[in-house]
Each structure stands twice: as C-alpha cells, then as structure tokens.
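Re: Re: token formats

Sure, here are both.
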Amino acid sequence: MDKNTKRWISTMEWFSKYWGCHQLPERSFSCKGYQFPICARCTGILIGEILGLIAGIISNHYSFWILLMMVPMVLDGSIQFCFEKYESNNIKRLITGLCFGFALAFSSIEIIKLIIK
C-alpha cells in the first residue's frame, strides 16, 4: 500500500470517528479515484460552518431569518428518509448542507456575542 492510500484511509477513519458521517460512496464526491472523507451533505455543512464562522465574526448584523436557511436540509433529508421514491442528489445535498452549516455557525457566533456583551 502506497503512502497516499495510507494517508487517505487514515483521513477516512478520522472523519468517520469524529465527524460521524456515514461515508456512503454513492452519496460522496470523489477526486482522482479517492472518495471524499465525508459525504456531499457533510461537505456542505463543513464548508458552510467555516464560512458562517468567518461571516459571524466580521458581521455586526444578525436576523433570526437566517435560521430559515436550515429548513431546506431538514426538508430534503426528511423527505428522502420518509419516501423511498425520492432520492436527493449530491448537488442538492451539498447546497442544503452549505446553507444549514452557514446558518448554524453564524447563529452560534451571534449567540456567543450576545452572551459576552
């Protein structure tokens, strides 16, 4: 086994253990034959959280309407779970995860700002 493969397996195991992602191949992106260590939805959530943290730190304005950005992921995941005929695709998973992660992180930063004032 080469060095890159060992590193990739280690990364996959880390994300499985600490992120809690199911890592299903059909629900994950891949690049050059390597599956991303987290699924499309978790990829969106992670990117959204990073962007939401940055935006929350530099922003001076907050609206509770931002919480509505969480609704699409909840609906997409719930509908897929409840109805066998509906299967979301990876682009929808990525976008809804991105919105959810952004709203979660941005709101968390704003709550922290309110507490420490």
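Second one below.
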Amino acid sequence: MFNGINNFIRNERMHFRLFDLGIFFLASAPTISIFFLIISSFTGSLKRKDNFFKDKINYPFFMASLLILISSIWLFIFGEPKLQLSKESLLLGSINWIPFFYVFWAFKKFLATDSLRRRCANLLICGTLPVLLSGILQKIFKIYGPFSILDKFIIWYQKDEYNLTAVFNNPNYAATWLCLILPFCFAKLLSNKVSNIKKISYLILTITTIACIIYTNSRNGFLSIILSSVIMLDVFSKIYLLVPFIIILFLLSIGSFLFASNMEIFPYGEIFKKLKFPDLTNFNELPRVKIMKSALYYIYKRPFLGWGAATFPVVYKFLENPNEDLIFFNTQHTHNIFLEVAYIYGIPVSLLIFIPISLIIYKSSININSKNSYYEKAWKLSAIIFIVMSQFDFTYYDVRLSTLFWILITGLSCCRSRDNKLINSN
C-alpha cells in the first residue's frame, strides 16, 4: 500500500492527467471534477521549488483567511439570536473562499507555462460541449430535465422554462459559464492558421456558444458577447469590422428603444426586450439599486466583522431597514461580489481579497510574439468578464464558477510572474 502511495506521489504525469480530468468534468459533472481537483490541490504542492509564502501575493489571502475564521467563529458564538440563523452556515460559508486561497498557489504547478494554460483552455472548451448540447436539446428539441446519473450523483437540470439553463439550475449561471468560455472559443478560432475544416468547426463552436448565451436572456451575457467580440477580434483596429459592428449596435439600440414595449410581435422578441435600458429617471427605485443600498447600509453597521454567510435573506426582516419594500424581492445576496464579501466578513476581508486579484489582472502580461497570444488574451479577458458580471449579479456560489474563476486568476498570476520554474518536466 505504501509503495503504491509513494509511486503515485512520484508520478508527475499522473498528477497532470488528474488535473486535466478535473478541468474537463468541471461543467458537466462537478462532483467528479471536484474529486480530481482536490487530489490535484495536494499533488500541486509536491516537488515545488517555492513555498506558499515565497510569493508575497499570498500574504493578503492568508490574512483574509484568518479574518474570515475570526468573523465566522465570533458570529457563531455571539451572533444575533433574534435573527434565527443556521449557525452551521456561518462556518460553512468560509468554504467558498479559504480553500481557494490554497488552490491559487497549488494549481500554479499545472498552469505555469503558456502551453499548459493553452491545454487547460482547450479542456475547458471540450468540457463545455455537454453544456452546449444540453442547451440545444432544451431550446430546439424541447427535451427537459432534470436528468440524473448514478443516483443523483450527477444532475443536468435543463428546466422547462423560456431561458436556457442547460446543465445548470439557473440561466444566469449558464450565461456566466458560457461567457467565460467564449473568449477561449475566439482564441481557438483565431489561432488556427492551417486547416479550413478546423476553422469551420471552431466557427460553428463560437457561433453556437454565442447563440446559447443569447438564449439565457441575460443582459450580462449580451454585454460579454460585445466585449469578447470587440477585444478578441480587435475590432477598433480593423475598419472592415468596425463599421458593420457600429451599424449593428446602432440598429439594436434604436430598435430596443422604439419597439421594446411591442417586441412580442417579433421572433425572439422577449430576448430583444432585454436590450432596453432601464428608466434612469427612477434610478433609486431599481431593484438592484435598492439591494445594493441596503447592503451598503448593513456594511456601515458592521464594517469589520460583517454579518456572516447566508444572513442577507433574513437580516432586513428583523432589523431596521432603509428599504423596507426590499423584502418583496426575496433577495438571497447583495448581487455584487465586493459588497457580498464586505457584508459577510467585513470591509478588510473584501479589500484583502480583491486588491490582490485586481493587481494580478492588471499586471498580467501577454506575449504578443507567442503562438499562444490569443489564449493569453482570452485568459485575461475571461477573468475581467467575471469581475464585470459580478458587479450586477453574484454567480460565484456555484462551485463550478468559483473554481473556474480561481483557475483563471491562478493562470494570470503565472502570466504575471512568467515563472516557469515552478514545475519539473511533465
């Protein structure tokens, strides 16, 4: 037995293949994926020439971990009894963050080089094919779920509703995943210089991904399509792309203003109604604005230790609330990733997490002379898209999306340092 464990620890190639399996199954079979990725987080710490504290970027994450534990334990012992909270959720909520600070370091072994990041991106694309297939079955063939495999060990939802959900249980989660994969689809398409057959297949893949994003009926999805198209195709430097892009955008904007109230007379009218901008004359009455104002109010009340995980749905029902009608929106979270962390654990934790992440994204470099330059560009863009989308909706609590986000940040950190000495030859 000990010889078998010792052989496994020494088998570097096996370590990389287990990580590959975790990436491939992340979207369609998260339970299987997390099993492989947990093993990878252990093997990723083996045979490392650096340790966790060698890179100073890990310091704020370590401090955030300590503060999250202090906040959770404090609220577990001295929390508001009248809130009738689940004490277990106060502690379990830390799982959404603390393990990923370790994963951020451990996974660098598997993402340290341009070629490894390209391999990971290609596996993410391959792992998204079941998402696209289930979305097509749902929207075109009206085949609905949920479908379960291995006694509900794996569940594909495919709900019977207007918006595409695919394997996810929420259209916003499906939109977020597809939006993060779309830049890599563009990279796959643009980096292929040889085979016309391959280009056609990659073009079909990209168009299918865009179509599925549109069918999620997500405003964030529409914004991400525009960002990915403009940046990956470098629209502003190519006049033959810029002119038609502006014309299409102009026509969509005019149409959304003129016909949004009567869009049901058009095919897919419900989708295009989403393009209508909200009435900014009543900005303070918008639901998301009210939610964020309430979040800011409660952050002001407890700026250092926060209110604890899973408390937002009940806090305003028991305590003074400046937006009392918020109760009718059945709000589960703050809909903003910065506010969410500040509300749960306090402002210091939010700063300790997102200032380093912002610096990693900002300082990550793209080697334009590399054959993988499109993938490097896509990697950075995908991380930015997640941050942008998380300003208006909070999909981080889906383990597939949080895992993908930290994989992106880990890869960008390797782009930042260009340190390829983290691993031995695989």
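Strands lie at 147-149, 154-156. Confidence is low (pLDDT under 50) at residues 256-268, 418-426.
- S.
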